[in-house]
Design a protein that fits this description.
mainly alpha; 7 helices; about 0% strand; globular
Length: about 190
Amino acid sequence: MGTALVLGAELAAASARLALGLLFLSSALAKLHNLSDFAAGLRAYQLVPAAALPPLALLLPLLELLLALALLLGVGLPLAGAASAGLLLLFSAAVGLNLLRGRRIDCHCHGLAGSQLISWGLVARNLVLLAPCTLLVWHGATAAWPPVTALALVSLALLVTSWFVLSGLIHAAVDTTLAVRAAISQ
């Protein structure tokens, strides 16, 4: 494998670590900061028995925090990538089931992703986030931080920022497409 390809894969994996780590960290801290609001949000999904809500409301943000620390510190990256993918799929399934039921509730995502009404755009965003998870599963062992230079730091910052902008655009595009379809079919 060529040096440029290896450096590109390392930079991509490091960027995936940073983006996912910051996403899960901000989400976990926001949920832990207002645990009762998050528990009420879980209740709104109507997917688990009421007795399971309090432990689940604590377990999910703690799991996000654990994943964020593993990603940012570089511990067990292939496992952290797989667990991140599993959590994103779980969140997507919860949103998708409620959308299929015709329900429009707040996502209670918190953090960098913010909170908004659930939509297919949110499901699409979560599914797109599976790409960096997959990258970490396959290249996690080589996802060391690149040499700390101004260029590397600027590149990482641009990639992370671009990721969140792209995520927002995907969410808006899917929502707009669905709204246009609904308007046309009426």
